[in-house]
TrEMBL record:
Cited Pfam families: ABC_tran
Domain ABC transporter, chain residue ranges per copy: 19-255, 272-514
InterPro entries attached to this UniProt entry: AAA+_ATPase (IPR003593), ABC_carbohydrate_import_ATPase (IPR050107), ABC_transporter-like_ATP-bd (IPR003439), ABC_transporter-like_CS (IPR017871), P-loop_NTPase (IPR027417)
GO cellular component: plasma membrane
PANTHER family: CARBOHYDRATE TRANSPORT ATP-BINDING PROTEIN MG119-RELATED, D-ALLOSE IMPORT ATP-BINDING PROTEIN ALSA-RELATED
Protein name stated in the entry: Sugar ABC transporter ATP-binding protein
Keyword Translocase carried by entry: yes
CDD domains with a match to the protein in the record: ABC_Carb_Monos_I, ABC_Carb_Monos_II
Length: 524
């Protein structure tokens, strides 16, 4: 992996302030998301915005980028008061935003998405298609990616969509670029590429706002930091003057909560047996090639790998969403071949998908209804649902996972991104699974919530749950798994007990190619 350049600390002068929010407030029905917030973005500076899930970060950014109107307060651009009616208004003045929940049109091509809103692209017809495809290719190669500009966005994986969002922001000549969780779906290599790009943008004088729950990233990339708590500014600092424990304490008001896993417990019988599972890529090669795994009750296996390693596809095969897959899968001794998704869930398999917006939530339903959607059969009394039981299960889950919501009746779309992720996890847990598959479970959730989710998983593992969680976060897999399986190019390239493995071994295995893995296998 290429080392990322150390970013020069930037000392902005007073008149470097490009965009400023003064005493900004935002009230939603039943929630005050922001109150009296002062915030500024300076040219050539990365300002990190931190806060727990629901602290108000995305709301503040939406206001700066014209996606929401403030209930109170003022915005100034170059010292002049401005009011934005839409994202297009703000974009015309050089303010770009990469939303946390990606904002692409799945039925348009990559190039069309990148240039959406440009005058040449009207009524869905791109009158300057050739040029846009060429320019999109150039932008994507700046991001060191060879995504086909003519591919449909709906066919791309989440990480690729995130790259397209970044390219889309770059296609406009931005003076301020707001990045809300830009790396949540990216692999370590892609994070390095993004950081190099941020270095270039800074050098060109772009003011950057960077939101992330990955604290090791923010201390590297940030020049300044503002911490929000409960919709108000809790602290401001130069990044070089602070460290991660300080940031956590300011965010959550208590010490760090990322507890490494204690010694593994005695394990029970196998609950999930995967034998020689494969899924061909119709364009050649494999998405998943001859993967085998034996998971025992009480075991927590981390599945580590880079983007495109085949982890999400493996989960899709297990849950029954890839009918063309071959191989054998047994759940608690029972063969799953030919069973549809719903039948697998009923037998005790649960999946928390990577893309919560598309696959994890029903947007128009309440938090409570989303939580029990997959487990309604548990609350059946005769032919109708017992509302008391359903309500108490919902309340308990909201409490256990620290979901920040005023009532279970609130629509799930009104929750902050991290809290939506917790709803998806809660929904899976309420099915009382024997095996829980988690695809990037801590995507978008804050340090406290992350620890809470893993604590809950651990507690359930003590009662016999088997867990496989996919992650591209080395620290997370090292801290949380009993055993670590590494995938690369669709194959398992390493199987290590957590107690003895090193980060270097994991990175080496994640970078091994399928060909190398096959040669090693033949040599054995
Ligand atoms: N459209 C909306 N309607 C009602 N409430 C909302 C809406 N959008 C946000 N909120 C509420 O405003 C508060 C702040 O949410 P916001 O999304 O800004 O948090 P955040 O700090 O970005 O969190 P996360 O880290 O989880 O993304 C939350 O309590 C959220 O439920």
């Amino acid at each position: 992996m290429a080392p990322s350049p150390e970013l020069e600390p930037h000392e902005p002068a007073e008149d470097d302030v490009v965009l400023r929010a003064e005493q900004v407030g935002k009230a939603y029905p039943g929630t005050t998301a922001l109150q009296g917030v002062d915030f500024e973005v300076c040219a050539g500076t990365v300002t990190v915005l931190l806060g727990e899930n629901g602290a108000g970060k995305s709301t503040l950014m939406k206001i700066l980028a014209g996606a929401e109107r403030p209930s109170s307060g003022r915005l100034y651009l170059d010292g002049r008061e401005v009011a934005f009616d839409s994202v297009n208004d703000a974009a015309a003045l050089g303010i770009g935003i990469i939303f946390q929940e990606l904002n692409l049109c799945p039925n348009l091509s990559v190039a069309e998405n990148i240039f959406l809103g440009h005058p040449a692209l009207r009524f869905g017809i791109d009158v300057d298609k050739k040029r846009h495809v060429a320019e999109a290719r150039k932008l994507l190669s700046r991001l060191e990616h060879d995504i086909d500009p003519e591919a449909l966005v709906g066919d791309l994986r989440l990480a690729e969509q995130q790259i397209v969002e970044i390219a889309k922001a770059l296609a406009r000549n931005v003076r301020v670029l707001i990045m809300d969780e830009p790396t949540s779906a990216l692999s370590a290599t892609e994070v390095e590429i993004l950081f190099r790009l941020i270095g270039d943008l800074k050098a060109a004088g772009v003011g950057i706002v960077y939101i992330s729950h990955r604290l090791d990233e923010v201390v590297r990339i940030g020049d300044r930091v503002t911490v929000l708590r409960d919709g108000q500014v809790k602290a401001r600092a130069e990044m070089r003057d602070v460290d991660i424990p300080w940031l956590i304490a300011e965010m959550v008001g208590r010490a760090a909560a990322f507890e490494p896993q204690a010694d593994p417990l005695p394990l029970g019988p196998p609950v999930l047996e995967i034998e020689e599972v494969s899924l061909r890529n119709p364009h050649g090669g494999f998405f998943v090639e001859r993967v085998s795994l034996r998971l025992r009750a009480g075991e927590v296996v981390g599945l580590y790998g880079l983007l495109g390693a085949g982890r999400s596809e493996l989960f899709e095969i297990l849950i029954g969403a890839q009918p063309d897959a071959v191989g054998r899968v047994r759940l608690a001794g029972e063969e799953l071949a030919g069973l549809p998704i719903a039948a697998r869930i009923r037998r005790g398999l649960a999946l928390v998908p990577e893309d919560r917006q598309r696959e994890g939530l029903v947007q128009c339903l309440s938090v409570g209804m989303n939580l029990t959607l997959a487990s309604l059969h548990r609350f059946l009394r005769g032919t109708s649902i017992d509302p008391g039981q359903e309500r108490s299960a919902v309340t308990q889950t909201i409490r256990d996972l620290l979901i920040r919501v005023s009532s279970p009746l609130v629509e799930v779309t009104a929750l902050s991104g991290g809290n939506q992720q917790k709803v998806v996890i809660g929904k899976a847990l309420l099915t009382q699974p024997k095996v829980l598959l988690l695809d990037e479970p801590s995507r978008g959730i804050d340090v406290g919530a992350r620890a809470e989710v893993f604590r809950t998983v651990r507690r359930l593992a003590r009662d016999g749950l088997g867990v496989v969680f996919a992650t591209s976060d080395l620290k997370e897999v090292m801290a949380m798994a009993d055993r670590i399986l590494v995938m690369a190019d669709g194959r398992v390239t390493g199987d290590f007990p957590r107690a003895t493995v090193t980060e270097e071994q994991l990175v080496a295995a994640a970078n091994r190619t399928a060909v190398e893995a096959r040669c090693e296998e033949d040599a054995r």
